[in-house]
Write a structure and sequence with these properties.
Elements (H helix, E strand, L loop, with lengths): L11 E7 L2 E9 L3 E5 L7 H12 L3 E5 L11 H13 L14 H16 L4 E6 L5 H5 L5 E7 L9 H4 L6 H12 L4 E6 L7 H11 L3 E6 L28 H17 L8
Parallel strand pairs: 3-4, 3-5, 5-6, 6-7, 7-8
Antiparallel strand pairs: 1-2, 2-4
């Protein structure tokens, strides 16, 4: 049996500096850039594997490392400790309903740099879990052409108003709506019973963005036909079942297709 490969095997790593903040950034592949913002508890092996899939699909996968321990497998204790540290970090505002986390300024700069280096019509921005809503905030910058929200969980859903909030300033939401109306759609996905990414949030997105929001909601209710656990949360990583016909595999394939539609020039058919 082959030995397991290191979680960031095949990625090039370099620091990215902006406005006094530095984080490591891991890259793999060629083609238009896709900035993949990892979930709690950190840049774990399943996120790295998703980055490989993106690179294999013809993109430059760009994985900033924002918190946690690089490559550490997910565990209950690791999740709890990482969550606590993020909640008290200045770069994150986990309860803010009408403003974005400060780290999105750094991420917008990374998106601009990625576009400059990789070319193409723009970049993709994909957030997961506590970073899921960040893809909306990054749309304020016009280089972000393919925003994907995977189980967007901020603000933490402690009240009805938090459950339907989008972690955006009113001005940023206006810009997002203008960009969507101008032809930049948004893709989102969640499990139906996920309390961290409640149904009210997707209802709000549909209300604000109309047909410009494509929402994938995967049935995780009791006795669902695919046996998806009620606790399922991470659509593209931990809870991905990479099997033909499984709805999480379909969500993965739709994500890659969405990125291709938005970022890869279509081959011109010769007459």
């Amino acid at each position: 049996m082959d030995a397991p490969r290191p979680p960031l095997d095949g990625f090039a790593t370099a620091p990215f500096h902006h406005d006094g903040t530095t984080h490591p950034v891991h890259r793999r592949g060629h083609g238009p850039g896709v900035v993949i913002i990892h979930e709690i508890p950190g840049l774990h092996p399943a996120v790295a594997e998703f980055g490989r899939r993106v690179a294999e699909a013809g993109f430059t996968a760009v994985l900033p490392e924002l918190f946690g321990t690089l490559g550490r497998p997910v565990s209950t204790g690791y999740l709890a400790r990482s969550m606590l540290r993020v909640c008290i970090a200045r770069e994150f505002s986990v309860l803010a309903r009408n403003e974005s986390s400060p780290v999105t300024d750094w991420l917008r700069a990374l998106c601009r740099q990625t576009h400059s280096e990789c070319g193409g019509p723009g970049v993709g921005a994909l957030g997961m879990c506590l970073t899921g809503n960040f893809a909306l905030a990054l749309m304020v910058d016009e280089c972000v052409m393919a925003p994907v929200l995977s189980q967007p969980s901020l603000p933490l859903p402690i009240s009805r108003s938090h459950r339907e909030a989008l972690h955006l300033t009113p001005a940023a939401l206006d810009t997002v709506k203008q960009r969507v109306a101008g032809g930049c759609p948004v893709l989102g996905m969640r499990f139906s019973e996920d309390p961290l990414c409640p149904a009210e949030r997707f209802e709000r997105l549909r209300h604000e963005l109309g047909e410009g929001f494509e929402g994938i909601e995967i049935d995780s209710s009791k006795d669902n036909p695919h046996g998806i656990p009620h606790s399922a949360h991470s659509v593209l990583t931990i809870d991905l079942v990479d099997r033909e016909g499984h709805p999480t595999r379909a969500a993965l394939e739709r994500t890659l297709a969405f990125l291709s539609e938005r970022l890869q020039p279509q081959t011109q058919t010769q007459p």
